[in-house]
Design a protein that fits this description.
Blueprint: H1 2-5, E1 10-13, E2 21-25, E3 30-35, H2 40-46, E4 53-58, E5 64-69, E6 73-75, H3 84-94, H4 97-105, H5 113-127, H6 135-146, E7 157-159, E8 168-171, E9 176-178, E10 185-187, H7 190-199, H8 206-213, H9 219-239, H10 243-265
Antiparallel strand pairs: 1-2, 2-3, 3-5, 4-5, 6-8, 7-10, 8-9
Helix pairs in contact: 3-8, 5-9, 6-9, 6-10, 7-9, 9-10
Length: 267
C-alpha cells in the first residue's frame, strides 16, 4: 500500500477486528484507507452517511483500496445517542430507496424472522440438555413464537445492525456520520431501533426520539422492537461463559419480557 501512495505518506493501522483499515497522512492530506471495502460505500458516501469517498483503486492482486476523508472528530458518548440528529440520520437511512436498491443489487436478501427464530431455537436446544430447563429463556422463546406473526410481512429497509456508540462519528464541524457498515442487512427497521433503545435510549424518551426519527410508537412497532431485543439478548446469552455475566443477561431478558407484557396488557 505504501508504494501506491508514495514515500511522502506515512501509513499506520487503524485497528479493528479485520486489520484491513489504515490511517494515511502526508504534509497536506489525511486519508482513511480500507482494503476490500463493500461497493456499498460509494452510495453511503454520496448520501453523506459516511465520510466522503475520495478514490477507489484496484491492485494487481485483485484487492480494492478505498480512500475516505479522515475527519477530526470523536465517537459519540452513549448518552449522546439520545440527540435528535442521531434519530434523524437513522430515519434517513431507513427511508432511503437508493441504499435498499444497492444492497439488493449486491445480492442481499431480506432477513426472515421465521428463519432467525428457527435457528435461535435450535441453538438454545443444543445448549441446554433435555433434562435442563431454563425458565427465562423458555419464556422468551415462547413469547417470540407466539408473536412471530406480528414481525413478518414488514416492509424491509437497510439496517446497519451494529449501532454501537463507537460507530457514530461526530466531527468538530458538527457533522454526524454512521460508519462500519460491514454487518449491514436488509430487514425490519425494528432491528436497529430495538438495538438502540435497549442499550441507549431511556424508555421515557422513546416517543420523543421516534418523532425525530419520523415515526410514532404503536403497539405493533413496540412488539417488533422487543421481539428483536429478545433475539439479540438470547444470542448474547449463548455466547457468554461466566456465571456472573449469564445472570446479568438473564435479568436483561426478564426486563424486556416485563416491558413487552405490559404493552400487550394495555391493548
Amino acid at each position: 500500500m505504501q508504494y501506491m501512495l508514495g514515500d511522502e505518506w506515512t501509513i499506520e493501522s487503524a485497528g479493528g477486528a479485520t486489520g484491513e483499515a489504515y490511517f494515511a497522512q502526508s504534509k497536506n492530506k489525511r486519508l482513511f484507507l480500507k482494503r476490500n471495502s463493500s461497493p456499498f460505500l460509494a452510495v453511503l458516501s454520496a448520501q453523506g452517511i459516511v465520510p466522503k469517498l475520495v478514490w477507489t483503486k484496484r491492485l494487481e492482486n485483485g484487492d480494492v483500496i478505498t480512500a475516505q476523508e479522515w475527519l477530526d472528530g470523536s465517537e459519540l458518548n452513549p448518552e449522546v445517542l439520545q440527540h435528535p440528529k442521531v434519530a434523524e440520520l437513522l430515519g434517513r437511512i431507513h427511508h432511503s430507496t437508493e441504499l435498499l436498491d444497492m444492497l439488493t443489487r449486491m445480492g442481499k436478501k431480506a432477513m426472515s424472522p421465521q428463519l432467525l427464530f428457527r435457528e435461535l431455537k435450535q441453538m438454545m436446544s443444543a445448549q441446554f440438555s433435555s433434562n435442563t430447563k431454563h425458565f427465562t429463556i423458555e419464556r422468551a422463546l415462547q413469547f417470540m413464537e407466539k408473536h412471530i406473526s406480528e414481525v413478518v410481512g414488514i416492509k424491509p429497509v437497510v439496517c446497519h445492525c451494529d449501532l454501537n456508540h463507537n460507530n457514530w462519528l461526530f466531527t468538530h464541524k458538527g457533522e454526524l456520520f454512521l460508519i462500519d457498515w460491514d454487518n449491514a442487512e436488509i430487514g425490519d427497521p425494528a432491528i436497529d431501533l430495538g438495538m438502540l433503545f435497549q442499550r441507549y435510549i431511556p424508555e421515557s424518551e422513546w416517543d420523543t426520539w421516534l418523532s425525530h426519527y419520523g415515526a410514532t410508537e404503536d403497539q405493533n412497532l413496540a412488539i417488533r422492537m422487543h421481539w428483536y431485543m429478545l433475539y439479540e439478548a438470547i444470542i448474547d446469552y449463548h455466547r457468554l461463559q461466566t456465571v456472573e455475566d449469564l445472570y446479568l443477561k438473564e435479568q436483561e431478558i426478564k426486563a424486556i419480557l416485563t416491558r413487552v407484557m405490559r404493552i400487550i396488557e394495555e391493548r
